[in-house]
From TrEMBL:
This is MBL fold metallo-hydrolase. GO terms for molecular function: hydrolase activity. Residues 34-225 form the Metallo-beta-lactamase domain. InterPro entries: Metallo-B-lactamas (IPR001279), RibonucZ/Hydroxyglut_hydro (IPR036866). Gene3D superfamilies: Ribonuclease Z/Hydroxyacylglutathione hydrolase-like (3.60.15.10). The keyword Endoplasmic reticulum does not apply. Keywords: Hydrolase. Pfam families: Lactamase_B_2. It comes from the Bacteria. It comes from Sphingomonas montanisoli. PANTHER family: HYDROLASE C777.06C-RELATED, HYDROLASE C777.06C-RELATED-RELATED.
Length: 254
């Protein structure tokens, strides 16, 4: 499998509007973060997780022009507001792109972006929406999920298995549940939310994330959804072995 970090920033990205870099060194390109998203690929399929507001540029930078399916973690703006650019993926496929999320996520997306799911004014639908089944297989990739507490909603955490390889993606949560630890236990790579050092009401802070990594024991852990307080070069040397900050455009091949 191949994992690509399309974006590893928080909802406002880094820098924030106003050229606000916070504690991040603007001279280090690893600190320029678009909104959080990944792509997972196997020999058979390519799967996109979330349609961030930066999706168009993310896919251009990654030279990705075709997607076999989209998974949504939840319906917050920084994870879905690039949905209009699915049109170009639809044109590349010639058929609507299959999209999956929790039932409440899909209901919200269908209401807010009805034209993408049902078409309008002679334009065809671009997304074939589905509620997530308990266990999903797309091509040669098995996908399982877990509900993650995220403020007053739940986001979906995903585990991707292909052969003997496993990738976990777990963003937008503020509590770590036993179900989360069980799903992500022993994965080869766990991409996991670490918004900042200070606690946050709806996101994981660094120590909470490190504690979860210590319990799940992935082969490697990659920190994502980081804000402008998380300078890459300052943060990296402080992390335990096997844990590192993500940066946009990073690729891992298992």
């Amino acid at each position: 499998m191949k994992l690509r970090i399309l974006g590893c920033g928080t909802s406002s990205g880094v820098p924030r509007i106003g050229n606000d870099w916070g504690d991040c060194d603007p001279a280090d390109p690893r600190n320029r973060r678009t909104r959080a998203s990944i792509a997972v690929e196997s020999d058979d399929v390519r799967i996109l997780v979330d349609t961030s507001p930066d999706m168009r540029q993310q896919l251009l930078d990654a030279d990705i022009g075709c997607i076999d399916a989209i998974l949504w973690t939840h319906d917050h703006a920084d994870h879905c507001h690039g949905i209009d650019d699915v049109r170009q993926l639809f044109h590349a496929r010639g058929t609507p792109v299959p999209g999956y999320g929790f039932a409440q996520t899909m209901a919200s997306l269908r209401e807010r972006f009805a034209y993408a799911f049902f078409g309008r004014d002679g334009y065809p639908p671009t997304i074939d929406g589905h509620d997530l089944p308990d266990d999903l297989t797309i091509g040669d990739v098995r996908i399982r999920h877990v509900a993650q507490p995220h403020g007053n909603i739940f986001s979906a955490g995903f585990r991707f298995d292909c052969g003997e390889q496993a990738i976990g993606y777990s963003t937008d949560f503020h509590l770590v549940t036993q179900d989360m630890l069980e799903l992500f236990a022993g994965v080869d790579i766990w991409v996991i939310d670490a918004l900042r050092a200070r606690p946050h009401p709806t996101h994981a802070h660094l120590q909470l994330t490190l504690d979860a990594i210590g319990q799940a024991k992935p082969g490697r852990a990659i920190l994502t959804h980081m804000d402008q307080s998380m300078d890459f070069a300052s943060l990296a040397p402080t992390l335990p072995p096997g844990v590192e900050p993500a940066h946009d455009g990073q690729v891992f091949i298992l």
